[in-house]
UniProtKB/TrEMBL annotation:
InterPro entries: CBS_dom, CBS_dom_sf, Mg_transptr_MgtE_intracell_dom, MgtE_N_sf, MgtE_transporter, PRC_barrel-like_sf, SH3_actinomycetes. GO terms for molecular function: magnesium ion transmembrane transporter activity. PANTHER family: MAGNESIUM TRANSPORTER MGTE. Residues 412-433 are annotated as: Disordered. It comes from Cellulomonas shaoxiangyii. Keywords: CBS domain. This is Magnesium transporter.
């Protein structure tokens, strides 16, 4: 074990690799779990470690043999059961950073920026120091940050439970490079109050991406906690199909209010999607695939599929149609595969390499038909057309999987996952007609 008296700052520990005694990497530290005590400072009892598969597990500090420069060494096997926070436990990264506390020297309030823990002779780890930034309320210094202090934990009041709204700047800075799905996991594991605080601190685009990865209950709770104008902005930043799914979980009165606050063009796509039953091609599709005219050059088409906001499934195909090129388009012609474009001269037009053998589906086609068609053609996305063969949108394989998996698949360990079933239908349709 690290030598007695070793001081470890938790914010610096986040992201550190964890290794087993043989030197194989187990995962990365994501948080530290502490317990409040009646006397003395909190006691650190374990690490939250993210292991492959985005699962977070609990590693007791009694099974940590070394916390050293850039690495944590554990002993024995790691229990792979998903970490579940108990009522008596506090997460340093998730709940203590950004918390406003009072300094007992009478100098006022401060914000927690880091927490230091030290190993005692007994082998236990205690929180001993708190790194804080003093609030600076002097006139004319609104943009200037207050001084920082490293104070003994006994000189700080307010670590036990928050007394008011808590910021999230420091926490989000630690997770800035995380993918949306990983950040969604972090939010899901926080308490409801802290989850809403962190979600509210995200910008609209980031929050939209994270909402798309959260379970439906969390999505609804976060959206309903936002002011209506902010909620409408976030819905605009989401993919239309995901926004429609989320709105389908809200009361009709609130849905109508949000749609009125959204930009008309964005609201129009969402309204169209809300009219379809959930487990149909129309209910599954997005209205924003890559749609180009047949005269477009291959070079230009490749530029379109390189868009950062495009998921890999939709980037695998370009949908070719007659003008207008916004859904519903002119007559649908066919698709151009990404692989085919990579094999052709950049100056050639995509109209020369269109695959017209892909049979599109109608908006009312059931989920089973969509699934079979994707499998038949080995596609990642499938065109959806109306009676006049105008392109309405595209169903991507990730949306199909999301509906085939159990509703709680994001919260279920792989080893305990049950059989595949479809979700109950008719979540949408309330605004039809």
């Amino acid at each position: 074990m690290s030598s007695v008296g070793t001081r470890v700052f938790v914010a610096r520990l986040a992201g550190t690799r964890v290794f087993d005694p043989l030197g194989d990497e187990v995962g990365r530290v994501r948080d530290v779990v502490v317990l409040a005590r009646l006397t003395g400072g909190p006691r650190a009892v374990g690490l939250v470690v993210e292991v492959p598969g985005r699962r977070r597990v609990f590693l007791p500090l009694t099974r940590v043999t070394s916390i050293d420069a850039g690495q944590v060494i554990s002993t024995g096997l790691v229990n792979m059961r998903r970490f579940e926070q108990r009522a008596s436990e506090t997460l340093v990264m998730g709940e203590l950073l950004d918390r406003t506390v009072e300094l007992l020297d009478g100098s006022g309030s401060a914000t927690v920026e880091d927490v230091a823990m030290e190993q005692q002779r007994s082998g236990d780890w205690h929180v001993t120091k708190v790194f804080v930034r003093r609030a600076d309320h002097r006139p004319g210094l609104l943009r200037r940050r207050g001084e920082t202090l490293l104070v003994p934990v006994e000189q700080v009041q307010g670590l036990g439970r928050p007394t008011g709204a808590q910021g999230a700047e420091l926490l989000l800075a630690q997770y800035d490079d995380m993918k949306a799905a990983d950040l969604a996991d972090v939010l899901h594991e926080l308490g409801i109050t802290r989850r809403l605080e962190v979600a509210s601190a995200l910008d609209d685009e980031r929050l939209a991406d994270v909402l798309e990865e959260l379970p439906e209950d969390d999505q609804v709770a976060i959206l309903r906690a936002l002011e209506l104008p902010r909620a409408a902005d976030v819905l605009e930043a989401m993919q239309p199909d995901d926004a429609a799914d989320l709105l389908g979980e809200l009361p009709q009165e609130q849905v109508a209010q949000l749609l009125e606050l959204m930009e008309p063009d964005e609201a129009k796509d969402v309204r169209r999607l809300l009219a379809y039953e959930d487990n149909t091609a129309g209910g599954l599709m997005t209205t924003e695939p890559v749609i180009l005219g047949p005269e477009t050059s291959i070079a230009a088409a490749l530029a379109h599929v390189r868009r950062q906001d495009l998921n890999p499934a939709l980037a695998s195909l370009v949908f070719v149609a007659r003008p207008p090129l916004e859904t519903p388009t002119g007559r649908f012609i066919g698709v151009v595969h990404l692989q085919r474009m990579l094999r052709e001269a950049p100056h050639e037009s995509i109209g020369q390499i269109v695959d017209t053998d892909i049979e599109p589906v109608s908006a009312d086609a059931p989920l089973l038909t969509v699934t079979r068609r994707l499998a038949t053609y080995n596609l990642l996305a499938l065109p959806v057309v109306d009676e006049q063969r105008r392109l309405l949108g595209a169903v991507s394989v990730d949306d199909v999987l999301d509906h085939l998996l159990p509703a709680d698949w994001r919260e279920t360990d792989d080893v305990n996952a049950g059989p595949l079933t479809t979700r109950p239908a008719a979540r949408r349709g309330g605004l039809r007609g």
